[in-house]
Design goal:
single chain; alpha+beta; four-stranded mixed beta sheet; 13 helices; 8 strands; globular
Length: 396
């Protein structure tokens, strides 16, 4: 057994060196420490940046955007350990996965478990190449925290489904090509009357309206379905099995939200610039210094917990621990955003134009956007209930 472990460790080290060399040869230095979301959230920004286009082409050609998927689905067929190594090496050079999206993080893994082969071949290669963008049609005006109360109707018309209703807080719906949606196929049951449907956003009868947020971004939308025809083959799993599929997809979503981000930059250099230093070269505010250290310690503890849970997961997939991680990560990022704005002082309140720098305006927008971390992917309360019930074994 020991020999097998040592052999695997040697193979992983060989792969790490291979990955490091390939990334050094292909990752454009101009994209180092640039937030990947800048390109993943905006088609205009992605199309206008030649470095991003080269980077995406290199990663999709290698299959390393979804390294653990089979090659027939656009992946590289690597092991979970090798996929993790690629992520670690990307982080080390300030890089990012150029095809990270709702398709790769949520729908893809779900289709691999619940989709039929025709659905996998129709959609997974386009997700792996980032040619087909997806949005998530779950929340409704009357069904957010109580998702099972959704009312968007899906009627069996014999040769097709007919969908009518409204979704809200649908991220990227105005730029998405397709939507994975929960729809009601049985009004007599609550959780047991929901189905999981794939809907082409170019279908007649769909309207997506962007919602302007306090941070200035408009990535959330309202989506209206007005008697939209959907092919029968777009149903994933069985009729009324949608709640089971959705719970699995939400595990993947929470897992992605708790992942280590590559665009985290150290606070200390910024604090030196904005706050200054004392005679000993320390940040010239003991209170700020103490809170920065606490945030850094929480971050390190979080990373250690992520590594431990990953080692404990026998199948490498999401576990109930992701709810705990999601809340921990949200708290760390929110605290970090507060610290950044505070150390910038009046410059941390910049919104647009002079005299604020790009970094200062970005800090303000990021601070406001961080407020949403307590809600999306499941609220703090929902995550804590999952942790209490499934991790701690407390009575429901």
């Amino acid at each position: 057994m020991r020999a097998m472990v040592e052999s695997a460790a040697i193979e992983d080290q060989d792969f790490r060196l291979e990955a490091r060399a390939w990334l050094a040869a292909h990752f454009p230095p101009a994209l180092a420490n640039v937030p990947g979301l800048l390109f993943q959230g905006s088609r205009a920004a992605a199309d206008a940046n030649p470095d991003y286009q080269l980077w995406r082409a290199a990663m999709t050609g290698k299959g390393w955007g979804v390294p653990n998927w089979a090659s027939r689905y656009g992946g590289a067929g690597l092991t979970m350990a090798q996929g993790k190594i690629i992520g670690e090496e990307l982080t080390a050079i300030g890089g990012f996965n150029p095809i990270r999206s709702y398709g790769t993080m949520m729908l893809g893994p779900t289709l691999l478990e619940y989709g039929n082969e025709a659905q996998k071949l129709e959609h997974l290669p386009f997700i792996a190449s980032h040619e087909r963008r997806w949005c998530q049609g779950f929340s409704e005006p009357g069904a957010g925290s109580d998702l099972a109360s959704l009312t968007t109707r899906c009627t069996d018309m014999g040769d097709h489904w007919l969908v009518s209703g409204q979704k809200i807080w649908t991220s990227g719906a105005d730029e998405a090509d397709w939507c994975f949606a929960l729809v009601r196929t049985d009004t007599s049951r609550k959780h047991g009357g929901i189905s999981f449907l794939l809907i082409d956003m170019a279908s007649e009868g769909i309207e997506a309206r962007p919602i302007v947020l306090i941070s200035g971004s408009t990535h959330f939308c309202e989506v209206f379905f007005n008697d939209v025809k959907v092919p029968k083959g777009n149903l994933v799993g069985e009729v009324n099995q949608g709640w089971t599929i959705a719970k699995r997809l939400l595990q993947f979503e929470r897992n992605s939200l708790s992942e280590v981000k590559a665009d985290i930059t150290p606070l200390a250099p910024l604090a030196h610039d904005y706050v200054g230093t004392d005679a000993l070269g320390r940040i010239d505010s003991p209170d700020l210094r103490a809170r920065m250290v606490r945030n850094a310690m929480r971050h390190e503890a979080y990373l250690a917990t992520v590594r431990r849970i990953a080692q404990e997961a026998k199948n490498g997939g999401p576990s109930n621990g992701v709810s705990t991680l999601k809340n921990l990560w949200s708290g760390i990022i929110q605290e970090r955003s507060e610290l950044l704005v505070e150390m910038m002082g009046a410059n941390g309140l910049g919104w647009a134009g002079e005299p604020y720098s790009d970094a200062e305006r970005e800090a303000t927008h990021a601070w406001l956007h961080s407020k949403a971390f307590s809600i999306y992917g499941g609220s703090y309360e929902v995550q804590n209930n999952i942790t209490a019930k499934h991790t701690l074994g407390l009575p429901g």
